[in-house]
Design goal:
The complex is a heterodimer. Chain A is α/β, with parallel strands linked by helices. Helix content of chain A is about 45%, strand content about 15%. Chain A has an eight-stranded mixed beta sheet with strand order 9-16-15-11-12-13-14-10. In chain B, strands 1-2 form a two-stranded antiparallel sheet. The chains are: A alpha/beta, B mainly alpha.
């Protein structure tokens, strides 16, 4: 028999109710009381522990119904429930019915041996008789706060008419509305006679597989049931804001793309190049979880909450524009169903947060995959995405490298720069994304890697069936499905690399090294004939994550590049992240002038722990690879000395721990501020090499923000002002006997090479795709002749004049 | 850095403050509730002061957990489960710790606040202790993010709590016993927000 527990502020009140019940019901009902507090002067109150004990005293597997009066009685009863064992919790229910009416109704039905569900329903309806009686006497309660809605759910039957049924976007809208209200919302698919599911869970709702033309029943329970019912009705009536309705829609036109005639989709060009290859969806894999159990469920639960919050933050940072896919990801993160399931695993089975989350996500993915509707099946990818995002945060790991079976074109909603940075251009031949813009960092990374990319293709992109052959034109921003066989198949551009060194006609060798960001373009650099790495940017190790990369993680990264480079030198530039990026663990604040702000060496010196971790990793990598160390954004001798001081400290620590490193490691600086140029003679005494970053140097010399379209054109490296400063830097370096490299965009521009050689630059650090062109250019030049060009351009009065001059000499020579 | 000793002082001092302000808190509750907030809190914290000496050598987590369990079983009013959950969630952050960094202190208060929100399901401007706690935690966080010291941060938190507490005066209660009084609760300061403000103020004084 179901037992009852009466919770009240007043002991006499609870005892009297129990008396009354005995009088009415006659049969024995198991009733326990938890009422009042042990304070003779002030005996009114409720007590969590008393309630827990009362429940345990009458507990049986048939279940316990707890009825309570108001205020703290409710809070205390809820808390008492949490103190019960997990098995007991499932069989103890709190009942919102008014105490006296509810207790009597429940006792009557419990005495018949009814089950817990029935007892609850009966108790909850206990107010109905009284209400209808008093309403009849015209003392109707206020309409909007009708207690009726508390006891009796409102229901409505709705027909879903939008073409795709309750797919992601409508389900997301439904859930967003439901979640704005207190009322419980439950939904069932009448057409398929499903069970009721939680209408606040986007997963549950989609898993109902409601198709166009099918009917759902929605139940609302709570004090704002009427309001939420109205809103939901409205939403469904308006077909979730979708324009086409069933009547205007041809049946079975689920994949608009494959049925279009010209098979073309137009997006925004983001990285140039044309390629044909089969399509694969970019899929995250769920990382492995090693530890299954934890003794501290409370802690695990908190960890999960925190990770969910971080994931939310990441997604919000990622979506600058309205992006329905990521909006939906946010809903998954808040999905009460996923939370409850994970919570149960954590508290009942002592699982770790990561293990529980992985289990829950895998289950949800399986649920989707079991659906008939292909569109809904495909939503498993969203869960995979969100699932692995949270797991990676929990496990503190960065990006998991992508492994493809055949070289393909990748499709994704949107990609982060750090994701793209991990792609191997031999495998990822092209990238198409549904969202994003050409100025996204991920587009810039793609062009560095030489991978054609088109962005902003719209959601239809995500409906292209996997393995479809696709042509992507990253220059025009067009993709073509199943391109006709006549279309000439342009293989991924395979430059014929010149592995020989770059030697001028008069026998001068110019070092050609590469600008890279990761393993992917390291390979490309070698294939194109790079003699080493002139600039390894390390920013991408740090972006899109909640904790900074560990020493080991960085070491692995540097070693992986070292393995590709073999004997060749690798110049690693330490972190340079400014306020235009968002990195949780760096206290970056919005700056009005990020370019002039807290970045590069200034930031590193302010964050010695972070900086020293990177230095340790770099130094450790130097034990087996030929590493050079370079500091960005230097403006003064003091900064260089302070950074070198930290290097010495790290070296001493390593020595003490008997860890190997190259004690002769070359240390250099980026020359990218006018201050560094002005001080070049003194700076040259402090370091082993200079590398001129022409992009930043131009914007600082010209006082023109590269990101401000009105003035960006002024930041032109062809300006004589910039060229004069390059000459000044080279002279200072050579006077001190050190070498100068140029790693900015200018070094990847064949037209600029005669000038750079003429100005005396020793080495060029070039984007991998541009290396063959630059080498060929050098081979066509005579070093001695270039000296004259160098001197001549310094006398010109404008970038225009320099360009004109350069184009003339080019034709002369070739 | 916050030492365990200062946490113990905090609890001790808050016990004294509650005893001293018992009548004041009860009066506030008389205007909009059932005239027992001071009595409830004092009953709870008197018991806490009996229990505290038995765990004084343990870690901060254990100490706060003991405070929590004692409040849960003795306070009697809504503030029992609410402050009980506050200290329970806070204790998890301080588990096995003998001292707290400023960031950990923020996390601890944040966890406590989230506990109260989870337990009471109240939101800002429902005229509850959330109105004092929530802006306080925000202010503390913001202040630390601006590289201010722990003390400056706490001072900001207390100021924010005080402001939040005063702002409860014109509000209509939507949670707890006071909500039954509807509009009549307007014009009176919320007792729970008041005790929460006192709790943070005592924390600041104990750290100083
Ligand atoms: N649901 C809630 N969420 C947050 N704070 C609440 C909630 N309910 C009440 N409070 C806070 O608790 C204070 C009242 O505490 P008190 O100890 O007097 O409990 P009570 O409301 O009298 O409890 P009871 O319901 O037993 O009468 C209120 O001033 C308010 O700040
Ligand atoms: Mg009260």
């Amino acid at each position: 028999m179901v037992s009852l527990v009466l919770v009240s502020h007043s002991l006499p009140l609870a005892e009297s109710i129990a008396n009354l019940i005995q009088h009415i019901v006659k049969e024995d009902v198991n009733i326990a009381i938890a009422a009042g507090v042990d304070d003779p002067e002030h005996p009114w109150g409720t007590d969590v522990i008393k309630i827990q004990e009362a429940i345990e005293s009458v507990y049986s597997d048939d279940g316990v119904l707890v009825l309570m009066d108001l205020g703290s009685a409710v809070l205390s009863a809820e808390m008492a429930l949490e103190f019960l064992s997990p098995e007991q919790q499932t069989k103890v229910k709190l009942c919102a019915a008014p105490l006296v009416e509810g207790a009597i109704a429940a006792s009557v039905i419990a005495a018949t041996g009814a089950n817990l569900e029935t007892v609850i329903t009966e108790a909850q309806q206990s107010l109905t008789a009284k209400l209808s009686h008093l309403e009849a006497s015209n003392i109707a309660p206020q309409a909007e706060l009708s207690p009726q809605s508390l006891t009796k759910p409102l229901t409505c039957v709705l027909t879903i008419n939008n073409p795709l049924g309750l797919h992601l976007r409508p389900a997301a809208q439904f859930v967003s509305i439901a979640n704005q209200f207190n009322s419980d919302v439950r939904v069932k698919n009448i057409t398929r006679s499903s069970d009721f599911v939680n209408g606040k869970s986007v997963n549950q709702l989609m898993l109902l597989e409601v198709r166009s033309g099918e009917q759902i029943e929605v139940e609302f329970k709570g004090d704002d049931a009427t309001l939420v019912l109205q809103e939901i009705k409205e939403l469904v009536k308006n077909n979730f804001g979708e324009v086409e309705s069933l009547t205007t829609q041809k049946p079975n036109s689920k994949q608009p793309i494959s049925t279009t005639t010209n098979n073309e989709l137009i997006g925004i060009p983001a990285s140039p190049g044309i390629v044909i290859a089969p399509v694969v969806y970019y899929q995250q894999t769920l990382p492995e979880v090693k530890t299954k159990n934890s003794e501290n469920p409370e802690h695990e639960w908190q960890k999960l909450q925190l990770a969910l919050q971080n994931a939310r933050q990441q997604i919000e940072n990622l979506t600058t524009q309205e992006n329905p896919i990521f909006q939906a990801h946010l809903l998954y993160l808040d999905d009460p169903q996923l939370h409850t399931q994970a919570k149960q695993l954590i508290f009942e089975q002592q699982q770790t947060a990561s293990y529980a989350w992985k289990t829950v996500i895998e289950q949800a993915i399986a649920d989707y995959q079991n659906l008939e509707d292909e569109y809904l099946q495909a939503r498993a990818i969203d869960l995979l995405d969100i699932g692995s995002r949270v797991l990676k945060i929990l496990l503190g790991i960065g990006i998991i490298p992508l492994e493809l079976e055949t070289p393909s074109i990748l499709i994704a909603p949107q990609l982060t720069p750090s994701e793209v940075a991990q792609f191997n251009p031999q495998q990822v031949l092209g990238i198409c994304t549904a969202f994003g813009s050409a100025t996204d960092h991920s587009a810039i990374v793609a062009s560095l890697l030489g991978i054609p990319m088109v962005v902003g293709m719209g959601e239809e992109l995500l409906e292209i069936p996997p393995h479809t052959r696709l042509q992507i034109d990253g220059t025009k921003g067009i993709i073509t499905l199943n391109p006709s066989s006549e279309t000439s198949i342009s293989e991924p551009p395979q430059p014929s690399p010149m592995i020989e060194p770059a030697i001028t006609r008069d026998g001068h060798e110019i070092g050609i090294v590469a600008n890279i960001i990761g393993v992917g373009d390291a390979q490309k650099a070698i294939a194109n004939g790079a003699e080493g790495v002139g600039l390894l940017r390390t920013e991408f190790l740090y972006l899109d994550r909640v904790t900074p990369p560990t020493e080991e993680e960085q070491l692995e990264f540097y070693q992986a590049i070292g393995a590709i480079m073999g004997e060749r030198p690798i110049t690693i530039r330490t972190l340079d992240i400014g306020a235009d990026k968002s990195v949780d663990y760096l206290d970056l604040f919005v700056e009005t002038n990020p370019g002039l702000g807290w970045r590069g060496i200034r930031q590193s010196l302010d964050c010695p722990d972070l900086f020293k971790t990177q230095l340790r990793a770099i130094l450790r990598a130097s034990a087996r690879h030929k590493i050079k160390l370079m500091f960005p954004m230097v403006t003064s001798v003091r900064e260089v000395r302070a950074a070198k001081q930290l290097v010495s400290e790290v070296q001493a620590e390593l020595r003490e721990s008997k860890i190997d490193f190259d004690s002769e490691i070359a240390i250099g600086i980026m020359v990218e501020t006018p201050a560094a140029v002005a001080m070049a003679d003194l700076l040259a005494k402090e370091v082993d090499f200079f590398s001129i970053g022409t992009n930043d140097l131009s914007q600082y010399i010209m006082a023109a923000d590269r990101t401000n379209t009105k003035v960006a054109a002024l930041a032109d490296a062809y300006e004589p002002a910039v060229l004069r400063m390059i000459r000044q830097t080279v002279d200072a370096a050579h006077n001190a006997g050190i070498t100068v490299s140029v790693c900015g965009q200018l070094a990847s521009d064949p037209k600029a090479i005669p000038i750079l050689l003429g100005l005396g630059v020793d080495e060029l650090s070039v984007n991998p795709p541009a290396i063959p062109g630059i080498k060929a250019k050098i081979a066509s030049l005579n070093r001695l002749e270039t000296k004259a060009f160098g001197n001549a351009v310094l006398q010109l009065d404008s970038a225009v004049a320099v360009r004109e001059y350069v184009s003339n000499i080019v034709t002369d020579i070739m | 850095m916050l030492e365990k000793k200062q946490i113990i002082d905090w609890i001790d001092n808050f016990t004294a403050v509650i005893a001293e302000k018992k009548d004041y808190l009860t009066e506030l509750d008389a205007a909009i509730g059932d005239a027992d907030h001071g009595i409830n809190m004092n009953r709870g914290f008197q018991k806490v002061s009996e229990k505290l000496p038995t765990v004084i050598d343990r870690d901060i987590g254990t100490i706060l957990k003991t405070v929590s369990m004692t409040l849960i079983s003795t306070v009697g009013g809504a503030s029992g489960p609410l402050y009980g959950t506050f200290f329970l969630k806070a204790s998890a952050v301080a588990a096995q710790k003998e001292e707290l960094t400023p960031e950990e202190l923020v996390q601890l208060l944040q966890a406590g606040l989230e506990g109260v929100m989870y337990r009471g399901k109240a939101q800002l401007e429902d005229k509850t202790m959330i109105d004092a706690l929530s802006p306080a935690v925000d202010a503390f966080k913001q202040s630390l993010a601006n590289n201010n010291s722990e003390l400056e941060g706490l001072q900001k938190a207390v100021d924010a709590a005080e402001e939040g507490m005063k702002k409860t005066i014109p509000l209509i209660a939507r949670k707890g016993r006071a909500s039954y009084l509807g509009e009549r609760s307007m014009g009176h300061q919320d007792p729970g927000a008041t005790s929460s403000y006192l709790m943070l103020k005592t924390l600041l004084e104990s750290v100083r």
